[in-house]
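Ticket opened by: R.M.
Priority: normal
Category: complex prediction / small molecule

The reporter submitted a protein together with NAP and asked that the result be attached to this ticket for the collaborator who will pick it up next week. Submitted input follows.
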Amino acid sequence: MIYNFLGNTGLKVSNLSLGTMAFGRWIDEKESDRIIDAALDSGINVIDTANFYGKGQDEAFRYGTGASEEIIGRALQGRRDKIVLATKVGLPMGRGVNEQGLSKKHILKQAEDSLSRLKTDYIDLYQVHRFDENTPLEETLEALTTLVEQGKVRYIGCSNFAAWQIEKSRKISKLDRLVSFVSSQSQYNLLSREAEQELIPYCLSENVGLLVYSPLARGMLTGKYASGADYPAGSRAANGEKLIFQYINDDNFKRVAKYQEIAKRYEKKMPQFALSWILNQPAVTTAILGASKVQHVTDAAAISDWKWDTELIQEVNNI
Ligand SMILES: NC(=O)c1ccc[n+]([C@@H]2O[C@H](COP(=O)([O-])OP(=O)(O)OC[C@H]3O[C@@H](n4cnc5c(N)ncnc54)[C@H](OP(=O)(O)O)[C@@H]3O)[C@@H](O)[C@H]2O)c1
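Result attached by the on-call engineer:
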């Protein structure tokens, strides 16, 4: 397993992280425990979750239940200190007017709730889940600074922010002597490369850590879906996750077929190939794998240190 520094910090994180968005949703606690064990055994030291992750994500009114955090909290008893535990705040945790967003009231309440569900007294990386245009950044950063000063949070990060929003936040932190975001969590994969326009150059320039989510395009880059065929039983598309449908289309089937030919040449499975492409992009600190089976973790861990030459990178970029 390869370890990278998280942005401009002294914290070392594995270049693969375990994503847990589906724990307590369609992955039950027993299977979640097996996946966590496999991840830690393989050398993965980052677990990414959110207060929001759990069953309520699929309801018409999307809200968090904390189920993923609860499962992780129980699983990490006795080995918490070895893990870089990352969670998030900001998405709805109920229907109340103050039960979402990045106000001081909501952040301070949610941090306590997350600590209690995670059965720990500190969070390594506390991330704001998305930009909140209704709350002044000063207020959000003050709340996060309070948590760091109280010893409840070690580092802070943002997610789904545009480059200008990260820069504005970090400028405020500097001017107001508040704690600063050290990382950005963003979508990036072979079928979704928008991050290359602004975000990635920004992260490289400012040494902001980049945690990549949906590195396999929610499963589309695994080759398990085929044009005109039924969705495989137990897959996300069959389970009804709505967000995967942004990727399932004919153009992407054609691209995946081309990537599969190259993967075969290198004797790699398609998910290994797609993940490895991410790990060979210069700004990437870690790719957050959404494993739903132990095999997904072992497949990924096997390519953590596969370094690509420029010819291969160019061939893939041409597609
Ligand atoms: N900050 C945010 O807004 C945000 C948004 C999304 C995700 N995230 C984080 O990022 C994590 C990962 O996102 P994601 O779940 O969308 O990631 P992903 O890695 O792109 O997709 C994961 C899916 O790919 C399939 N898969 C993975 N490895 C495989 C293998 N070796 N062979 C066959 N299929 C394989 C599985 O599909 P099946 O289950 O269908 O078999 C799995 O559920 C989440 O858990 C969460 O922690 C954050």
